[in-house]
């Protein structure tokens, strides 16, 4: 029997503020979190975070180089906080990553293996960023994968559609939050 964990990735204030978050997005993610807790499935929040001055960011990195110049996601940055609608509860693990994938520069794999987790349920912002990168790396690490399609968000709806409809199903089960919640409630 699979031992799953729900990953809630990059649902941080500065990220949700940059996206057009549909009215139901955060409540759907909250529903997934509540269902996971009720089913004793660990909830792991994955955040992007850097040290003051961003010493871990290369100026050659297009994505994070610009972020470092702006000072974002360093200690004390209010934008780095997890959105309060999906905030961690006591017992939830918060993992800090240094790149796009939830595994890059973090201790996520160690946390999951220590808990006997062999299957991941993915949610997060953005579908074409953290979700895609984490899915690919998790598949290479032999985790079973489920993506909650409406628990992911992307600035480009067409990219989201292609990834969740055509790319992700090659390596993961792709379902809605409601379908997943129903499946674990039994």
From TrEMBL:
Keywords, sorted A to Z: Hydrolase
UniProt GO molecular function: hydrolase activity
Record InterPro entries: Isochorismatase-like_dom, Isochorismatase-like_hydrls, Isochorismatase-like_sf
Domain Isochorismatase-like: 4-178
One Pfam entry name: Isochorismatase
Name of this chain's protein: Nicotinamidase-related amidase
